[in-house]
Amino acid sequence: MDKDAFIEQVRNKLIVSCQALPDEPLYGAQIMARMAVAAQIGGASAIRANSPADIQAIKAAVDLPVIGLYKQGDTGIYITPTHEAILAVIAAGCDVVALDATLRPRPSEASLQTLFETIHAQGKLILADVSTFEEGQNAQALGADFVAPTLSGYTEYTPKLDGPDFELIARLAAELNIPTIAEGRIHTPAQARQALDSGALAVVVGSAITRPRLITKSFVDALL
Ligand SMILES: CC(=O)N[C@H](C=O)[C@@H](O)[C@H](O)[C@H](O)COP(=O)(O)O
């Protein structure tokens, strides 16, 4: 899928992140594929998914573009950090590759520039997951197709907010030339609406739709 087609597919729409790690109760490619089917029936415009196995199962189950990533651990730079991880999610069939584009020291010798080049050489689109405006600027300069504030609140130098980082969404959307896809702690339909009103092209919602353990906990906590 080319960039214009992807933009038209997701414009002003919801993208559902269907992810469960091995320590989560819904872990398993077939379970994530059913989550994706539910998301498609509900009206999602695209799916965000982690790992080659999940991406492959989701691609077989739904007729939607997939933003693929491959988490390697859960500290430091863990979202699609290497060429191998990129090639694995592309081989699994994703349309867009999401990767950590923060300015932190990288775990392998691969620079962000060469990782971007690998994605484009395979004819796929780049979604740069960042935590600050400067990281978004850097990703744009290196050739990213899309930017998302996915990592705001997850780097040691960004504030830990309870809700979405609307300020960063608005600044990325206003000051960069590439589209911003809002993501991270969007927990309600009103927040999703606000993200679009802040200038985002589309909105990714994960936990609030596909992590029932966390959804349950939010209700339980409200009753304490
Ligand atoms: C920080 C990090 O590793 N974020 C991951 C990125 O793919 C996922 O664990 C999140 O679920 C996703 O970003 C969607 O966000 P939320 O689940 O808050 O709607």
UniProtKB/TrEMBL annotation:
<dbReference type="InterPro" id="IPR011060">
    <property type="entry name" value="RibuloseP-bd_barrel"/>
</dbReference>
<dbReference type="GO" id="GO:0047465">
    <property type="term" value="F:N-acylglucosamine-6-phosphate 2-epimerase activity"/>
</dbReference>
<dbReference type="GO" id="GO:0005975">
    <property type="term" value="P:carbohydrate metabolic process"/>
</dbReference>
<protein>
    <recommendedName>
        <fullName>Putative N-acetylmannosamine-6-phosphate 2-epimerase</fullName>
        <ecNumber>5.1.3.9</ecNumber>
    </recommendedName>
</protein>
<comment type="function">
    <text>Converts N-acetylmannosamine-6-phosphate (ManNAc-6-P) to N-acetylglucosamine-6-phosphate (GlcNAc-6-P).</text>
</comment>
<comment type="pathway">
    <text>Amino-sugar metabolism; N-acetylneuraminate degradation; D-fructose 6-phosphate from N-acetylneuraminate: step 3/5.</text>
</comment>
<dbReference type="GO" id="GO:0006053">
    <property type="term" value="P:N-acetylmannosamine catabolic process"/>
</dbReference>
<dbReference type="Pfam" id="PF04131">
    <property type="entry name" value="NanE"/>
</dbReference>
<dbReference type="InterPro" id="IPR013785">
    <property type="entry name" value="Aldolase_TIM"/>
</dbReference>
<keyword id="KW-0119">Carbohydrate metabolism</keyword>
<comment type="similarity">
    <text>Belongs to the NanE family.</text>
</comment>
<keyword id="KW-0413">Isomerase</keyword>
<dbReference type="GO" id="GO:0019262">
    <property type="term" value="P:N-acetylneuraminate catabolic process"/>
</dbReference>
<dbReference type="GO" id="GO:0005829">
    <property type="term" value="C:cytosol"/>
</dbReference>
<dbReference type="InterPro" id="IPR007260">
    <property type="entry name" value="NanE"/>
</dbReference>
